[in-house]
Each structure stands twice: as C-alpha cells, then as structure tokens.
C-alpha cells in the first residue's frame, strides 16, 4: 500500500479549505467560463465588493486563482487546471442537472 506523506495530506487539506466557502465556490464555478473582473464577479455571485475582495485574496494567496491587469481592470482566472477539474467534479456530484453526459457542465 502506498502511504501518502502527512505533509501532502496537510497541503491538500489547506487547498480544500481555500475553496470551502459558498462565495469562493461560486467564484470558481463562474471562472470555469473564463477570466472575469471583480465587477463581473460581484454581479455573478451577488457578493459585496469588500467581501468578494477578501475571498479573492485568500484564493490568490493559496494559489487557487491568479490575476492579470488589463487596463484599469484586474481579471481573475483559475490558476491550475486541476482546480477546474475539482470544481467540475463538485458540480457533477452536487449539480448533476447542469452536467452533460460526459460529466462536464453544459
């Protein structure tokens, strides 16, 4: 049996904590469609700017999302395809009506 090192388990646990909030999961679901700026994310999630900014900062600090400045706007995107796969898996489990036969959101 392959033993997973404790530090890897702790790291995975931290990564899951970084996305384990309704606002953060909502942001990630929207970012599956591509980069979005804060204003777009506010409209999509219904979160207030100050609240959303705190969640974005936490996910950025944990490496879940990255940002890119385009003119006056900062656009956020999912930093690692594995996080996108994780969000797709969560959608498949908790929102199966949104998933196609292939298991990806429509």
UniProtKB/TrEMBL annotation:
Residue span(s) of domain HTH arsR-type: 4-98
Source superkingdom: Bacteria
GO MF term set: DNA binding; DNA-binding transcription factor activity
SMART domains: HTH_ARSR
N-terminal signal peptide: none
DNA-binding recorded as keyword: yes
Keyword Repeat: no
Keywords: DNA-binding, Transcription, Transcription regulation
Family matches, as PANTHER family: ARSENICAL RESISTANCE OPERON REPRESSOR ARSR-RELATED
Family annotation (NCBIfam families): HTH_metalloreg
Listed name of the protein: Winged helix-turn-helix transcriptional regulator
